Amino acid sequence: MQKAMDLPKRVELYDTTLRDGAQAEGVSFTVEDKIKIARQLDEFGMHYIEGGWPGANDTDEEFFTRARTIPWQNARIAAFSMTRRKGMRAEEDPNMQKLLASGAPVITLVGKSWDFHVTHALHVSLEENLQMIADSVRMMKRAGREVIYDA
C-alpha cells in the first residue's frame, strides 16, 4: 500500500460544461457564450476546460480558433473526440485530424472499456480496441499534446 506522503499533493479539476452541459435540453451556447463561460472557469482556477468536439459543429470550430488566441491564466483547453475508427490508421482518421487542427494543448479521447461495448457496439475484438486506443494516444503524444483517456 502506498504511504500517504507518496500520494499526489494536487487534485486537478476538469470541467465539461462547454460540451456535456451543452447537451441538455434547451441549452444552446453561442461562441460568445462559450468564451465567456471558459473565461469565468479560468478565473475560478479550473485546471482543464473541455471546449467541445472539433468538427462537430461551427460553434465548436470557432471556439477552438478563438481559444488559441486567449492567454489562459489557469486552465488548459481540451478537445474531445473518440479514438480512431476501426479499420484505419489514426493518421487517416478525420476525427484525429480535427483534434490536431483544433490547436488544443490537451486531447481527451473517449474509448470503450467494457468488453460488451467493444464487441457489441464497436464490433471489434478486444485486441483491436486496445490498438485503437494505443494508436490514438500515441498519435496525439507524438504531436506534443497532453492526453486524457475517458473510459
Largest sheet: 5 strands, parallel
- Principal-axis shape equals globular
Query: What's the N-to-C terminus distance?
Result: 25 Å
**Poorly predicted spans:** none
How many alpha or pi helices? 5
Q: Total number of β-strand segments?
A: 5
Strand content: 15-25%
Average pLDDT: 94
- Percent helix, as a range, is 25-40%
Structural class: alpha/beta
Determine Rg (CA atoms, Å). Answer: 17 Å
Order of helices and strands: EHEHEHEHHE
**Widest beta sheet: strand line-up:** 1-2-3-4-5
Summarize this structure briefly.
By secondary structure, the protein is of the alpha/beta class. The protein has five helices and five strands.
Write structural notes for this entry.
This protein has 151 residues and is of the alpha/beta class. The chain has helices at 31-44, 58-67, 94-101, 115-122, 126-142; strands spanning 14-15, 48-52, 76-82, 106-110, 146-150. It has a 5-stranded parallel β-sheet with strand order 1-2-3-4-5. It is globular, with a radius of gyration of 17 Å.
